[in-house]
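Box 3.1 A note on notation
Throughout this textbook, protein chains are presented in two layers. The first layer is the amino acid sequence; the second is a token string describing backbone geometry. Keep the layers aligned when reading.
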Amino acid sequence: MLKKLLKHELKATSRYLVPLFLVLFLFTILNKITLGLDIFKGLFKIIPGITFTGYVLSLIAIVVVTFVILVIRFYKNLTSEEGYLMFTIPAKSNQLVNSKLLIAMLWTILSILAVILSLFFLFMKEINLGLFLGSIREMWEEITLVFHGNAILLAVEMIVTAILSLINTLLQIYVSIAIGQLFNGHKLIGSFGAYIGINLVLQILFTTAIVVSGVVFHSFNDLKYTTTLFFPILIVVILVINGIYYGVTNYLFTNKLNLE
């Protein structure tokens, strides 16, 4: 059933998001052409400015609008009148959440990659590829030296942390919406309130943790502990928080669903 939900979610979101990617692609090509030409004189000098402004806006839109659309879709599909249909299909609440989460992660990662590739393509003429690769190699050697040969481990831990942080961001919104749907007639306000409340609690906890860790690990001033201590603890903490978010979200949608 999850496979069917993923296919349906991907198809439904593509209708809104593929056009955004096409707009970014078109503005990238258009700016590549206009920036490479020196034919705009007089009043026509405004043309490159207009196209570049459109390009910058499309860069922002591809990330921000994509994320907003995915959040709105989760809210409408599972807590509004559309929820009557979603929760009557033969699928568990965790499958519904999983499908939303996985597709949201896919589109978010694709939007970030699209921005990076677009910028690289647009300004690739100004980049000396050999010098760029040489700088990357030197930086990698320096990181390997500083972190006592643990550069690969550091890279893996940073990638894992980034993925878990993305999941954390989405699940925090999901659990806030799941809590907010409990408030009859004020679901949106309840969701915002829950999100703000969760953030306040997390800020207090993380501030306390930073102070405590600063005292406990004061003597650990070697960067090698970044890979053997800091990131492992951080990953475990994010995993625990994600587990709580996920568990609460599924519990509320399974046992406390309110579509009124």
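The radius of gyration is 23 Å. The mean pLDDT is 83.
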